[in-house]
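Q: Can someone sanity-check these two? First one:
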Amino acid sequence: MVSYPNFKNYFRSALKVLKRAIIVFLAITILPVFSLRWISPPTTSFMLQRNFNAWWNDKKNFKIRYQWVKLSKISPHAPIAVVAAEDQKFPVHWGFDRESIEEAWVERANGIRVRGASSISQQVAKNLFLWPGRSFLRKGVEAYFTVLIELLWPKHRIVEVYLNIAEFGDGVFGIAAAGKAFFKKPPIRLTRWECALLAAVLPNPKRFRAARPSNYVLSRTAWIYKEMDRLDRAKCLKNL
């Protein structure tokens, strides 16, 4: 008699393996995000990649400048500046600016150069854990980590981490390193204009320079400065 494989047992075994894989995946992703609610990250995925690329291309003079500083030691103008520049709906959304994403999809469909639609929470997820690029895989993983961050961190922690890991110049990560490199002062002493200027270079810190701002960067800084005033008057960030 010919024996046939027991597909029901195979299915059950595969289901068990899948369940275990899901549990392991959740553990190795949720635990780091949860712990970073209180622990200052010693480095980020983007910093590690920049160091590796410098080593690979034999850039011996390249050096990561990074110094963690608590939000209480950062100028109160800085959170307002990055929200004004990068994500004005940050206080009210849950990680994703739906309108900006929809507008970006319309631009892509019409063959227009796609502008950035990533929220501050998405940028934190990307910089901490992921890699550059626009693939659907990376965006999917980014969305997953964004949801975790929004669920496990308060808004003020998200801003604190963002200000500490964002790249403000070539290899200059975090507002403490940026304040020292460009203005020779600690982050708590940064003026309103200086915070707006730092926020203005965030879209492309390798091209835009806070130390020698172009006319475009200066005009963007002036726009951010005005938006900061508007957000202040509207008290949009009073709970951050």
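And here is the second, same format, sequence then tokens:
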Amino acid sequence: MLRHQSFLAFLLSRSFSRFATQISAVAIGWQVYDLTGSAFDLGMIGLVQFLPTALLLFVAGHTADRYERRRVVQLCEIVEGLTALYLAWGAYAGWLTVTQIFVATFVLGIVGAFESPALAALLPLIAPTGSLQRATAISSGASQIATITGPMIGGFAYAIAPSASYAIAGGFALCAAICIGLVRLTQPAVVKDTATPADLFAGVKFVRNNPAILGTISLDLFAVLLGGATALLPIYARDILETGPLGLGILRAAPAVGALMMTGFLAHHTINRRVGMRMFQAVIVFGAATVVFALSHWMWLSVLALAILGAADTISVVIRFSLVQLATPDEMRGRVGAVNFLFINASNQLGQFESGITAALFGAMPAAVLGGVGTIAIALLWMKLFPTLRDVEKLE
């Protein structure tokens, strides 16, 4: 599949974009906590990123189905690059404030709201027929390589100068915009010439009427919403594990190391049976690894727990993405992708907000433990509520 030029360009674009996102996340998280020392403000980063997704859900999904998806992604990556360069300029000149960081974070949230549905809807049009699960695994693995090295680069660059980390992120985002322009589709996308108000909400209706898809998306929402311990990494890095920005980068990279190992396995050995049950089992392991990380005072154990967490999450991601994309007609993929992205963002960014609030009230360690236990409970409950999803046997 790597010989396929358009698929390779897609992988490079996604990887560069992931580099930019991860480097910016390290810099923003550390700088906000360094300026304020507040767990609440760390949680606010997630809320500020989530709000654009909630506000622009239906517009972003319709945009991905109405306009050329490559151009939507390209425009988003250009804006992401310029925003990172703005942060670099402000950090270098010394006038960057927490409020300005939050404003830039809000802009990045807008970018993500439009980019993710369009990017997800592109992959089925690029991957060869019958190979979506393998293409998803390879694509996830490529982005995980960036997720592994991105935080380390970001932490190292931040230790030199905060402006350096933002500047590097901006460069990667602009490279992503160039690569996505090289993609050529193997099958044409269905583009509608007109739109009605009902079209904007069609994605929600489609998800609601498909129990397996509804169960898949909502499982991710509630499980990761409670298990968002990674939002507390700056606190763990500085106050519990007593390491610095570079240590924070290592901690942020650890889930991606486990994820990369798992995607390498899945790229050669696809899950061909009991895929629904495998997804639930992966979420339970995710919750258990979160509890181990929460209780750890040793760097090596924390890194190991985060790596296992990342590996388990990858199994869930590959199954979830393949199931949703294969069950959705192309003309609906943008709008369904927007709904999916809302749930993913709610789980990650509202999970970050929830973790920050809980940590501010009870402390970082109790907050992370409660989140891991809650994730396990959600997986067990969803197995009962969505038997259709639990009994899914195959994807392709």
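A (reply): Looked at the second one. The mean pLDDT is 80. The radius of gyration is 20 Å.
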